[in-house]
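Subject line: Sequence and fold of a protein, written as structure tokens
Area: Proteins and the way their chains fold up in space.
Start of record: The labelled sequence and token lines come straight after this line.
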Amino acid sequence: MTKLFERQDTIDTLRGLIEGMSVAMLTTLSPEGKLHSRPMIPARHEFDGDVWFFVSGVSPICSEIRQHSAVNVSYATPAKDQFVTLSGTADIVTDRQKLELLWREELRNWFAEGLATPDLVLLRVAVDEAEFWDKQASTGGGFFSSMISWKGTFELVHEKVGWSAADELATETRTVALAAAGAEDAV
């Protein structure tokens, strides 16, 4: 089923899902044509359709983005059965004011000199498509624990959203009901 929603409603939903997720996996395309994923700490920024990361401007990640700017960012909170994947276009930003605005002190673990770190840049991902999975439980077990122990029933809501330059949003929602053994015809 496809519906049109306003972009801001979807951004608000995605923000609510990812705001407590402190680590993302960023996937780029290597020069050899292989997918390359690595954990990243997002910059201090409230999701507004863009995701920001601090990186070294001379790192392989920047080289990969200069060659192929399409990327994927994924987040997960398995304890809450929430999963988000964001696809978009990445670009490298060197604006000093933006660096200062988005800096987080915990990034000193990777950039010991803080904002004075040589070659420090921002990576901005302009999101144009997102998918998320969020469990609506009829038992307290959760998606993965239910899959492992196969007890109870639950619904897993999966939405895929994308928006155009006109800010119209196409959304596809699928709800899959899964049941315990013995209820083979659950749909």
